[in-house]
Design a protein that fits this description.
The protein is α+β, with helices and mostly antiparallel strands. The chain contains ten helices and five strands. The chain has a five-stranded mixed β-sheet with strand order 1-5-4-3-2. A hairpin with a 4-residue loop joins β4 and β5. α5 runs parallel beside α8.
């Protein structure tokens, strides 16, 4: 009886191991491509839940945190990423990376000017306090969203490489500052430079 139980348990463990290897977390070209598609669809719709699931990005995590509390940040995210296009250029399963080429509007000057104007009017402490002020967010972020809608597409695609990690149920793409800046049309890098 013990042998039968042990054999059944061993077969069950093998079956579970096989299932976990063939899940969405398996590092295959097909799963990497699906993850890239999911991540970029989440950026374009600024779906904070899916961004948290498929994207590891320090800056985007901060923005998605605000977007979950304030609709103005969600609208800003949609405005930044709605014109984003991408193409998978290379998948290196051994190095656990994927190289992507993106095109977006050129938002660096718009973001830099916006950040400088705010810093001229408000102290850092005052700016942080206003991040929970709905009226302030309505007035200031609506202006930025309008400026973004008037921006022109950058004619040159930007290529960068993302790291791939395996989570329990899916793959996750690691965005460094270069990737964050590229997908945001230069907006995130410009804001960081203006604040620094």
């Amino acid at each position: 009886m013990k042998k039968l139980f042990s054999l059944t348990l061993a077969v069950l463990f093998i079956a579970l191991s096989f299932c976990s290897c063939s899940s969405g977390a398996a590092l295959t070209e097909e799963n990497v491509t699906k993850t890239v598609d999911e991540a970029f669809a989440a950026l374009k719709s600024f779906d904070t839940e899916k961004l948290d699931k498929y994207v590891d990005s320090r800056t985007l995590s901060i923005i998605t945190g605000y977007a979950e509390k304030h609709d103005q940040f969600r609208k800003l995210g949609i405005a930044i990423f709605e014109n984003l296009t991408y193409e998978v250029k290379d998948i290196d399963l051994e190095a656990q990376t994927v190289t992507v080429s993106v095109t977006n509007k050129d938002l660096s000057l718009i973001a830099s000017s916006f950040a400088k104007r705010l810093l001229e009017k408000y102290s850092t402490f005052s700016l942080l306090a206003n991040l929970d002020n709905e009226l302030w967010l309505d007035n200031n972020l609506a202006e930025l969203v309008q400026s973004i809608s008037d921006a022109v597409l950058n004619p040159k695609p930007i290529e960068f490489t993302l790291t791939i990690t395996q989570d329990k149920k899916n793959l996750v793409l690691g965005f460094d500052e270069t990737a964050e800046d590229a997908v945001s049309g230069g907006a995130l890098g410009a804001i960081k430079s203006a604040i620094a």
